[in-house]
Amino acid sequence: MRELLWLIPILPLAAYVTLGVIGRRLPRWAVAVIGFVPVAASCGIAVAVASPYLSGQTSEPYVQVLWSWLQVGEFQPQIAFYLDPLSVVMTLVVTGVGSLILLYSTEYMDEDEEYSRFFAYMNLFVASMLTLVLGENLLVLFLGWEGVGMCSYLLIGFWYKDPDNGRAAQKAFIVTRVGDAAMLVGLFLLLSELGTLHIPLLMDRATAQWAVGAGLPSAAAALLLGGAVGKSAQLPLQVWLPDAMAGPTPVSALIHAATMVTAGVYLIARMHTLFLLAPIVLLLVAIIGTVTLLISGFSALVQRDIKRVLAYSTISQIGYMFLGLGVAAWSAAILHFMEHAFFKALLFLAAGVVIHALDDEHDLLKMGGLRKRLPFAFWTFLIAGAALAGFPILTSGFYSKDLILYSALVSSHGGFWLWLGGVVGVLLTGGYIFRLIFLAFFGELRREIGRLPRIRMKIPLIVLAVLSIVGGLFQIPRSLGGTPRFSNFLKPALGALPSGSLTIEATSELISSGAAILGIFIAYLWFLRRPKQVSHGALPAVPEMLQRYWFVDWGLDWLYDRVFVRPFVYIAHINRKDIVDRPFRRLEWIMAWTWRGFRITQTGRVSWYAVCVIGGVVVLLSMVVL
Amino acid sequence: MTVIPLNHVLILATILFGLGIVGLLVRRNVIFMLVSIEVMLNAAGLAFVGAGAHWQSADGQVMFLFILTMAAAEVSVGLALVLRLYHQLHTLDADAADLMKA
Amino acid sequence: MILVWLLGILGFGAVATWAVGLRSPTAARWTTLGLLTAGLILTLSCWSETAAWSAVRPTASYWVRELNWPWIPALGIHFYLALDGLTLILIVLTLGIGILSVLASWTEITTHVGAFHACMLWVLTAILGVFLAQDLFLFYFSWELMLVPMYFLIVIWGHEHRVHAAIKYFIFTQAGGLLMLVSIVALAFLHQRATGELSFNYFDLRHTPLSAAAEWWIMLGFFVGFGVKLPVVGLHTWMPEAYAEAPTAGSVILAGLLLKTTSVYGFLRFALPLFPNAGATIAPAAMILGVIGIIYGAWMSFGQTNLKRLVAYTSVSHLGFVLLGIYADTILALQGVILQTVCHALATGGLFVLAGIIRERTGHRHLDHLGGLVTEMPRLGAAGMILIMAAIALPGLGNFVGEFLILAGTYNVNLPLTIIATAGQITAMTYALRLMQRVFHGPMPRKWRILDLNVRETAVFVVLIAFLVWIGLRPQPIINLAQPALDHLKTFESEAIIYPEPS
């Protein structure tokens, strides 16, 4: 059964090629079928391929070599796929959530002129993402890594006629590429020091050759972290993600929430052996995660665009995953990745219903009272929002987030401050997501409702809502009498979770539950009890200066614009004529002027020439005589 | 027979040559310019003949014959060019033919 | 013998094409196509033989095919042609690009069609001569022969400022070429002084005992000669003009073959193996120039508003990688150099074809007048996107393999330069995305009413992209073919001796 592995990425790729070549000539229903069915089939194959792992028959990795990529001396990377529990989880989430979102898109994008182009790009994205998670060596992983980056670029700029969308798309691609450059140097380092890019072999050689805390593994890990930070929109490269919301909503759901932006998390989890050799870098991962989750939480509190709130929330949640990775709780990070994929995709899709119904309105302050008119969107959004906030016991987000927080407290790589940052983040999360819910769905109705979702948009919402609730069952904490099934499943690939006493676990859970409920309560006080707040959406009791600062995401964007973008553009602009050419042009100029001087003598008149001849003879003769 | 001093011959030749030069520079009519060149050639020839007589050598007269032949050739080519020039420009003014101006 | 046939078919075929073109322009196009295809078939007939040769690498004689006729015996000059794997790759590339540029300029060229194709065939013949020549005099002869028909291609069929561009191109490359001639002659005379025999044979000259200073100066002549054409940053300023003003086929051949490919070949075949010691001395400086080129070229490209100038400057950036790889001089980097050269020819050639088509359809080359083309020309937009992604070395396309190998091969030689060069890829993004945005995306400055690619143009792009993907995912055949040439180069270098200064 596992021999079918290669089909999983190939099916969406085939769909891409088909749609790319003949898509414009096909009727819409055919495009929808070609756009959706291959990914759904991939999902089915993924379940089949994963069944030996899921049923616990085996946890041995399975490698499928397709062909040898190239062979130069010792360097012999292959195009090969690698299946182990970690890639099983990733593949299932990508194909599962991917097919749900594609099903949703068949209806959501229905009125778009370029229906087939959308599905072509989406399928290419799924294919690249699957290549990324299944890649057996870092070069194949990088193939997928850049592939998803390109698809993200294409899909953010999908409505290309508006130059703003194009700008957002370029920003996303260029900023992530900054991280990728670091990652590429990391690959060169690993290749030249360890002589291979084959991931399992790399891990073996790294442990054999390098001591814990030595310079080389730290450098390698830090460089890979650079790539992860770019792709996963973490500090200091998070600036591209909020702008990336210019793309269609299903794109934001699939690429900029559920899958691509978590590629960095996957990379670090996949290379965790290397990161364990570099404790400093690991600490850096945790700090980046904590700081990012806090600052993005604050930024999310004051946004007015519904998708931007969700974007900052995504950055913040990936911050949690980084925190989990940084404290060596690998499977906790992956668990949170999975739960986050469910509830964040749901949030975006439900937001898509709202945006659709309000005729492409993104401004929260122009929404309101949608609870009665869009009950379906309201309930699904509420479920997802509660899961995001980590509402205790009932929602999946609670379990994964608490696992990370608890690990931060007990892990040998963790610490109290990291935990505290995480808890404050929980408070913020409850605050911003319920601010959004109260602003959009409660209060009085401000606009008329347009389109209502039909069946193809409803099914994915229902499935994701169910997953957002029951997702917690994958890993019920010991304090609630459960077993860590998910962590055990991942143990062969990622090792065990850090463990500590039951009391600490229960205390941590209690405090974070309290924080979540407190956050929701404050949002309730500020935005539901006092309706006047609703009219301008600002936070009471927080200085306005600070809010404006949060609104522009702590001014990082502004800083980059001034320090990098503007000088670069300015110099390129003034140097359009190429300063290097200047000496050559000067030479040309000198020649031209000399020529002008000489041409005066060429009058074309015979008598002038005769005078010159005679004058010349006289001069020469007098020189001889004198 | 009185011997004419060489100096006198050379002075006459110089005067003739100078007249030729002046004629060449001053006249614009191509035919007169050609005539001026003839005069200059003959001045040179006179100098040769005079010098040959002074040193009792035949070389001077040989050179004069050379100059004579060359002058004939030059005039024939020159007149052919003048004819072409007149044909094309309908004038004999040398300054009108400044097509070689840079 | 097949090598002479190859040159003969193209060289004399050009005369026939000219004659045919006087009667019927279409016939001239078909004749050119036929001649190039014949040449390609002839070359491909050597493919399996060469592949087998690459696998076993016989020691008796290095070459797969060789041919040595005396030409000017008094001066030791021979008509010496030879073929190995590297040459084969480049010849196939030359003929392939030649065919594509004929197809690309099918409707663009309307005046003196026969003469145009004849000039093109002569350029290609001279390029093949450069690749095949193993006698330095013959090499120089072919090298200079490339310039003349190309000059006419630009000056007769080019755009508005073609005369200035053509003269600048000619003077720059000619100056570089003359320096190389001085070096070649100096090398031959030093060889004669040492051995008493005047020869321009590549293998003879390799054993010339040179003092360090002589080696340095002679190498520098070659370096400048090849460097002007590569172009090395600093000597590149003739290039944007020439590319921008040349007709499409001219730009494609200039960018794809005439300059880069021949000079890369020159570096690999002559500059490195003939002067290993001086090469090692200049390597750090050359690598720094390469890295400056990577970033400066990309940066300049970002600032351009003329589509063809923009593409031209990307070449400076890509060839920076090549220069870096050549002087890193590890097998990994050199294999990368060859792949990068081939893929650069395909991708940049494709971009010039694209620019030509855009100009033909819209009448504009200026970015301010373009925009939103993908709405009217989705097929062109798709082709453009893939070629642009190739230009920024997206994995899965050939350029990535090239750049990756170059950088990986440079890593152990010079770490800081590798890092800067890798960061240079970010600057590459800026021009690529700007090009995409200003030409294909964004609002339309006016309502275009233009046709998308026709079958002929689609075929050109499909072939280009297919090769880029093939090299991106399975470059092994090319790597295998080039390997013996690189091993050969390495043995040359390992045998390097430093001779003492003559007292």
Textual characterization of the structure:
The complex is a heterotrimer of chains A (626), B (102) and C (503). With 626 residues, chain A is mainly α. Chain A is built from 27 helices and 2 strands. Chain A has a two-stranded antiparallel ribbon. In chain A, helix 5 packs antiparallel against helix 6 (163-194) and helix 14 packs antiparallel against helix 15 (330-357). Chain B has helices at residues 6-26, 30-54, 59-89. Chain C has helices at 2-23, 25-44, 47-56, 85-104, 113-132, 136-157, 162-195, 202-206, 212-229, 238-245, 248-258, 260-274, 276-303, 307-328, 331-362, 373-376, 378-391, 398-411, 415-440, 455-473, 476-494, and strands at 65-72, 77-83. In chain C, strand 1 (65-72) and strand 2 (77-83) form a beta hairpin. The longest helix of chain C is centred in the middle third of the chain and has 34 residues, at 162-195. The model of chain C has no long low-confidence stretch (mean pLDDT 87). The chains are: A mainly alpha (626), B mainly alpha (102), C mainly alpha (503). Chains A and C meet through helix 5, helix 6 and helix 25 of A and helix 13, helix 15, helix 17, helix 18 and helix 19 of C.
Major sheet of chain B: none
What is the share of helical residues of chain B?
A: over 70%
Mean pLDDT of chain B: 88
CA gyration radius of chain A, whole angstroms: 30 Å
Head-to-tail CA distance between termini of chain A = 110 Å
Q: Could you name the ranges of chain B where pLDDT drops below 50 across 5 or more consecutive residues? A: none
The pair of chains with the biggest contact is:
A-C, 54 and 56 residues
**What does the radius of gyration of chain B come to?**
17 Å
Q: Estimate what percentage of residues of chain B fall within beta strands.
A: under 5%
